[in-house]
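As described in the Methods, two query proteins were run sequentially through the folding procedure within a single session, without resetting any intermediate state between them. The first query and its resulting structure tokens are shown here.
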Amino acid sequence: MFRAVADVLRQIGGAVATVVTLPFRALARLFGGASSTARGRGV
């Protein structure tokens, strides 16, 4: 019984962590791409 509850909480925690980190990962990719293109132009 307790193991099932712990598994559910772990799954919820993993889902929340994924949802929270996704925007930051997208922002990092955005800024990383912008800085790399600016560097590629020789600015």
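Immediately afterward, the second query was submitted; its sequence and tokens are:
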Amino acid sequence: MTKRNGISLVNVMVFMLFAAMVTAQVFFFMSSSMDSIGEEREIMMYRLRLDTLVEEAREKLKATALSKNNPSATYETFYANTKTSWQPENNEKWEEYNCHVAIHDLNYKFDSSLAVERNGKWKEQSGSKMYKKVFAAMPPDKKPELDEDNNPVRDEDGKIKYTDDIQNRYYLIRAYADLPQKFYGQHLMYQVLVRRNEDTHEVETLSFQEVWF
């Protein structure tokens, strides 16, 4: 074998180039990881705020039955016509955080006569206005008639008879946040369906959804 001059220098240069590439990748992934962790912490902060708003709404329902008296609603008017007249404590501060909340009474009639607006409004509410989107109407549950032994009274066909007294009411809680621009203009919403017992004032959560739109 013959030893060529400069071969060790080539090895050193290749090693340094390889080391520089590895170092650059390490810094890149560290930087990306730090950004990702920071964004996750910020999203977690928004989640905690929405949790707080949902809990405030639940506490309000435990104290007071908020009713809109069976209004009529369409794709366009659902948000305004079913929204109750309640605001959380320190509402101005929540708005500074770009966080909002509303309680909707689901005892409403849907007006489907305006079919011409259907496609346009449904598409619009699937974008940045998801918080206005129609939710299923859920009329109150009435109390069953009871006999002397507290058993339900039935008619000739075996069906339970009901009184005019309301046993349960259904509400929709929507808390949402307008996220900073670095999240590409997205919104985060907590959508919670609850049932309130009119005797005990107990509020039961029936479903919970985290919605990105």
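The mean pLDDT is 86. We note this only descriptively and draw no conclusion about the first query from it.
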